[in-house]
What we know:
By secondary structure, this protein is α+β, with helices and mostly antiparallel strands. 28% of the residues lie in helices and 31% in strands. The strands form 3 sheets. An 8-stranded antiparallel beta sheet has the order 1-2-3-4-10-7-6-5. A 4-stranded antiparallel beta sheet has the order 11-12-13-14. A hairpin with a 2-residue loop joins strand 6 and strand 7 (165-174). Residues 1-18 have low confidence and may be disordered.
Amino acid sequence: MRKTFILGLLLIGITVYGQEFNFDIHNTTLNEYLKMERSLGSEQIPNIRNHVSADNAQPIKFKRKQKVISDLVGYYYFKKKDSTMSHILYEWDESLLTLKANTNDKKSKKYQKALIRKFNELEKIIMDIYGKPVSEGDLSDLSVANDDIKGGLKKNVKWFPNDSTEIEMYANVSNYYEKRGMVTTSPTHRIRLYIRNTKKEERVTPELTEERIDSLNLISKKFIASLKVENLEKSKSHLSKMIIEQVTDEQLKVLISGIDFDREIELIYSGIQMGMNGKTFAMLQYKYEDDQSGPPKEMIKVIFDDKNMIVGIQPLKMQN
Length: 320
């Protein structure tokens, strides 16, 4: 009985994680997705545009050959910090491959039927695993895609396998073309399939113990001492990987010109600072010892990441 039960679980796993797609984004690594693509004979292709994200690295893209319809392009998005999967996009859209946007490039009914058939096949595969989706629209009346009806055929389906996964697929099939002044509505033949990791990361507030403050204070003074003697390489050794590639020698020299090294500094404040991307950083603030005004006329702010590396330093001067 025990051996039969284990075999049953293995067979279920093979069914859920088919050869072409893997929907379990939480338990599948980036390397496993890449191996899957290579085993399918997919071609890795370059990114032609920069995907701006505070947390995600540039996606890894693969192209798979298809029959009749557009080749499939898969985008694998993953976190910079640990390469865990963020989301996946599978896209069947010839206009993006050929970069022929805003053209009156209509498709045959054979092409349209094949695209709709692909959507229906994918929907059935996912339904067999996760059940009936939340659905809007339909793809049953092909005449809508070829009459003078703006928008054509559309369908959107969504599954929510658990509280941290979302699977969404939609299709648009239309031969409608219109050009009005600067605005062009072109024929659209597209399927997009998203697999999203919707788990919200818990923000950990950095703890500023007395021991950590003492450690950060020592790092600050070492950094400032290296600036004083213009040892730029030593100065850079204290900088976070987050900024090191962007910092130039010229910028460090500008920073040096903004600090009065003939005066001693003292720590007057420590706390937490939030960045534009929502991340939190430790912050120390200094004044010159001989500055007895309140508030101080000049200060130096030093900001650290969670590895105690410097991500920012800013001399501040009060305006008269």
